[in-house]
Design brief:
Elements (H helix, E strand, L loop, with lengths): L3 E3 L10 E2 H16 L5 H10 L5
Antiparallel strand pairs: 1-2
Helix pairs in contact: 1-2
Length: 54
């Protein structure tokens, strides 16, 4: 079963963002933005888990 983070407008779902892709992107972004403050790993984990309740 495929889970999606964000939906688009195409009926074939070609423009929908898959949940694993979204979580990895947010994890990397969070790590990059907090690394200078010494919190890259914690921010990455928070980014990876931020949609856990969905």
């Amino acid at each position: 079963m495929t889970h999606y983070a964000h939906s688009g407008t195409r009926a074939d779902r070609a423009d929908w963002q898959k949940l694993p892709d979204h979580l990895l992107w947010v994890e990397r972004l969070a790590q990059e933005r907090r690394a200078a403050f010494g919190h890259g790993a914690a921010a990455g984990l928070a980014g990876r888990l931020h949609d856990l309740g969905k």
